[in-house]
Design brief:
The complex is a heterodimer of chains A (about 200) and B (about 180). Chain A is an alpha/beta fold. Chain A has one domain: 3-Layer(aba) Sandwich (Rossmann fold), CATH 3.40.50. Helices cover about 35% and strands about 15% of the residues of chain A. Chain A contains 8 helices and 8 strands. In chain A, helix 2 links the parallel strand 1 and strand 2. In chain A, helix 5 packs across helix 6. Chain B is built from 8 helices and 6 strands. Chain B has a 6-stranded parallel β-sheet, sandwiched between helices. The radius of gyration of chain B is 15 Å and the shape is globular. The chains are: A alpha/beta (about 200), B alpha/beta (about 180).
């Protein structure tokens, strides 16, 4: 048995599905990229949409997919929802994003300090790593920590509208929730996203 | 700089023109001396946005995002960078994203740094195993037309396509003997 860390993860008040439902409520024309594992299930639980691009793999790539989308669609708000383990695998992306400084991009990490898909082993954020500090150090003009509902309420308009790139690390409770799966064929997910964003001719 | 272009034709200008023909808008790269001139040409092109990367697999994910947003890009890297991309290639493969890559080779022809040789020798095989079309170019006057061909197959066929530009073309870096 791998020991489960005993850091505060189990006691954080915010619960990930409620957080994501709040972030995606009245989403308008928001474009959403989700990182593999629990964030993809959370986004699906909030309601499937062709303007979601839920990753089933490509660990470490969610933030960069969001950067590419934000550069190609500068007039649209782009939200990346990912987990602490996924973000830790691509920390360099934070430096790349801060360098490009896309005003329309927000990166939100649902940080439960665990690798949720592999047995709830502790990630580095259960130890010493502070992802908002990493983002700030990489050059993000906005880098916030959220620990409770009041802070989430205050962060929401910044996630949805502040000139970014915006980075928000939300500490969430450790929970083992049922998988709510989006379609898993990547070509279908890509084509339906492009059709919804760009028109049917772009689907092929 | 120790870079010997061997009196070759100026392939970077031809490749830049090919990227313009392919309507490439985003140029993601980890710098390589062999592509320095091409990078400079793209950076001076107002129709192309430059995205310097900290590691090459960022580029695979970035170009998935630009395609989702309706725009085309290219990933420029040295052969060693291909090894950094391997798991991220699954994004392009599983979703059938177009992925145009220009790879300048090291560890292949006159390489004086033995640490470059393992990846230089493995890169074509790795790309093929990862599902990419591989275009190996040995002559400077064939680089631009090869980029045209690879771009057509990538963007019209939703394919991963890599152009490997030989170390015979870019020259081997000289080290103190």
């Amino acid at each position: 048995m791998t020991p489960v860390a005993t850091t505060p993860g189990a006691a954080y008040p915010l619960r990930r599905r409620a957080v994501v439902a709040r972030l995606l409520g009245a989403r308008g024309d928001l474009l959403v990229v989700s990182g593999l594992g629990a964030p993809t299930w959370d986004v699906s639980a909030a309601g499937d949409s062709p303007l979601n691009f839920p990753l089933w793999g490509a660990m470490g790539g969610a933030a960069m997919v969001g950067l590419g989308l934000s550069l190609a669609q500068p007039a649209r708000r782009v939200l990346v929802l990912t987990g602490d383990g996924e973000m830790l695998m691509g920390l360099g992306a934070l430096a790349t994003i801060a360098l490009k400084r896309p005003a329309n991009l927000a990166i939100v990490v649902l940080d439960n300090e665990r690798y949720g898909e592999t047995g709830m082993q502790a990630t580095h954020t259960a130890g010493a790593a502070d992802l908002a500090a990493v983002a700030a150090g990489a050059g993000f003009p906005v880098a916030l920590d959220v620990f409770d509902q009041d802070a989430l309420d205050a962060a929401l308009p910044r996630i949805r509208g502040e000139a970014g790139p915006v980075f928000v690390n939300i500490k969430v409770r450790v929970e083992d929730l049922p998988i709510v799966a989006p379609p898993r064929d990547g070509a279908y997910l890509k084509d339906r996203f492009r059709a919804a964003l760009l028109g049917a001719a772009a689907a092929g | 700089m120790g870079i010997d272009h061997g009196g070759a034709l100026p392939w970077p200008g031809g490749v830049h023109a090919a990227l313009r023909r392919a309507r490439v808008r985003h140029v993601a790269y980890v710098p390589d001396a062999g592509q320095a001139e091409l990078i400079a040409l793209c950076a001076g092109d107002g129709a192309m946005g430059m995205v310097p990367l900290t590691t090459e697999e960022e580029g695979v994910a970035l170009l998935a995002g630009t395609w989702l947003g309706g725009e085309r890009g290219v990933l420029l890297m040295q052969s060693s960078g291909v090894g950094n991309c391997v798991n991220m290639f699954s994004l392009a493969r599983a979703c059938r994203f177009p992925l145009l890559m220009l790879v300048t080779m090291r560890g292949q022809w006159g390489e004086q740094n033995p640490w470059q040789v393992p990846m230089g020798q493995a890169v074509a095989g790795i790309l093929r195993l990862s599902g990419a079309l591989v275009f190996e170019v040995e002559r400077s006057d064939a680089v631009a037309e090869t980029v045209d061909a690879a771009a057509a197959m990538a963007f019209s066929g939703a394919a991963m396509a890599a152009v490997l530009i030989s170390q015979r073309i870019v020259g081997a870096k000289a080290f103190p003997q």
